[in-house]
Design brief:
It is a single chain. The two termini are 35 Å apart. The protein has helices at residues 6-17, 21-31, 46-59, 73-93, 103-113, 117-134, 136-139, 144-165, 167-171, 178-182, 190-193, 209-217, 219-227, 233-242. The radius of gyration is 18 Å and the shape is globular. The chain has 263 residues and is mainly α.
Length: 263
């Protein structure tokens, strides 16, 4: 494998940005401009993922190991996977040698060919869920509170996918609203993909899960959140399969707080 093939080129781009959160964000943005730098139909889809990356940067999750406050090895690794898939896609579209190295890259190529909300979620979530499954050993080194909210993030992004891929299953009688609520080009999707209203802008979290839930939801609502079955489980299972990750479907039981991706 040479430095001119798609995979090696993608690895080099990610390596150059690895220790600079701002460079990571810039690299992410470049993947939506396509190989020619002009992709007006694709560019709006970066909005949801970009919003999530801004949240990660504010929390310090993407800071390098040598920083005064090092970031999260797990968040950094999952983010790198998403960036690498995007860079490999651009490289292949630019004519660099090679075949897609993963199903996720194949889905990104499909999105490049036909940019739709369903195609974007399939590609994005294949990259993200792949990162969850690949980096479980890093996840278990995080605190139980961090792991809980990492799981919540996964369920939220998969549920947002279900809003456009399976609207009846996601919202039932309100299904006509689902595609608008889940459209990654619109600001509403940011509600599903970040937790800035609940978590402080710092890493690591210093309190237990109950503390953050109570501060946001109140004591009674937090207790219900922990006890009652989540309605998103079936929708999550469906989109796991549509994202090409059926193994992750078993990781979305009906009780959201008991979600186990890493064990």
């Amino acid at each position: 494998m040479t430095g001119h093939d798609a995979v090696s080129w993608a690895d080099a781009q990610v390596s150059a940005a690895r220790d600079d959160p701002a460079a990571r964000l810039a690299l992410h943005d470049r993947t939506y401009f396509g190989p020619t730098g002009v992709a007006p139909r694709h560019l709006p889809y970066r909005r949801a993922a970009r919003s999530f990356m801004h949240w990660q940067i504010r929390r310090g999750l993407l800071e390098p190991d040598g920083a005064v406050r090092p970031g999260s090895p797990w968040f950094r690794a999952v983010n790198e996977g998403l960036l690498r898939d995007g860079c490999e896609t651009i490289a292949l579209l630019s004519g660099r040698a090679g075949q897609p190295s993963s199903p996720a890259v194949e889905y990104w190529l499909d999105f490049a060919d036909r940019p739709t909300a369903v195609a974007w979620y399939r590609a994005h979530n294949a990259s993200v869920v792949g990162g969850y499954l690949r980096h479980r050993e890093l996840a278990v080194s995080e605190s139980s509170t961090e792991q809980f909210f990492m799981n919540v993030i996964l369920v939220r992004v998969l549920f947002a996918h279900a809003l456009v891929a399976a609207p009846r299953l996601a919202l039932g009688r309100l299904r006509l609203l689902a595609p608008v609520l889940g459209d990654p080009r619109l600001g509403m999707t940011g509600i599903f993909m970040q937790l800035s209203r609940i978590l402080p802008d710092k890493y690591p979290l210093s309190e237990d899960v109950a503390h953050y839930l109570k501060s946001e939801l109140g004591v009674r609502a937090a207790a219900r959140f922990r006890r009652h079955p989540s309605p998103v489980g079936p929708a999550v299972r469906v989109v796991c399969g549509r994202a090409g990750r059926p193994r992750s479907a078993r990781c979305a039981p009906e009780r959201l707080p008991r979600l186990r991706v890493f064990r």
